[in-house]
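Human: Can I borrow your eye for a moment on a structure tokenisation matter? Separate attempts, laid side by side, tell us more than any discussion would. Could you pick a protein and write out its sequence and tokenised fold? No explanation is needed for now; the record alone will do.

Assistant:
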Amino acid sequence: MILNASGCLDALAAPDVARSLDAFVTKTVTPEPREGNAPVRIAETDAGMLNSIGLQNPGIDAFVEDTLPRLCTLGVPIWVSVGGFSADDYAELCARLDGEEGVAAIELNVSCPNVTSPVEEADELVTAAREATRKTLYTKLSPSAPDVAAAAEAAAGAGTDGLSLVNTLRGMALEPTTLRPVLGRETGGLSGPALRPVALAAVHACYRATGLPIVGMGGVETGRHALELIAAGASAIALGTVLFRDPGAPSRVRAELAREAAAHGVAEAPDLRGVAHGALPVRTKKPAKTA
């Protein structure tokens, strides 16, 4: 299963790309409209990209009334990413989406590095969300957590159905001449190739700790990268930064992943889930010989 990472694809501007995914994840929606952070908001680095968008969005009312109906015409499952600044915010958002038939799942963004984080811990936020909705919940965690596996266990205990790993890491870029920060907010979230080993470690640790379904993300550019996250414990893959330069990445990565699985002697890539932990892969059965 291949998705996009939240905020890395405008499905209404690029509907054909969205339709090439197995599910589309929206940009994070908050209770009230947000203008986002001051520019500059994007900066390239040697091994990825920094962004400081600041959760710019129209707010939940406008999203439900205008954006969501248009997204539902794409013909792919819609996952709505939600974010807030208190447990009450998450509960309000989930309650608002609970009755929307077009919403297949809700992703709780509890780890955005570009806004002030809620004072509550992840388990409190998940508990509030779980009480407000019957929808499938995925909790998106930060690799900056002192113990991401412990955070995953807390989210699991609070009722999350799955995990999204990982969000970006906080980083900075300096302007070559002035040596001042490039981004208007000085720091931003680092994504791209530099995040890949961090994501791999987080998926590995959280799968071992919880066994929950995991959407693995962070620097995925090829089928091989996707396969490694699956081996670490991911059950689905999200593409992020790569979509900015290669809109055809979903179809390409899917094809590459199938070839990687075949090269490892299995029928499908999910058969290799968890092999990094010593699990035996599900081998493809050889056809019986005929006389």
Summary: The chain has one domain: 2-277. Residues 196-210 form the longest helix (15 residues). Residues 34 and 57 are 5 Å apart (CA to CA). The chain has nine helices and twelve strands.
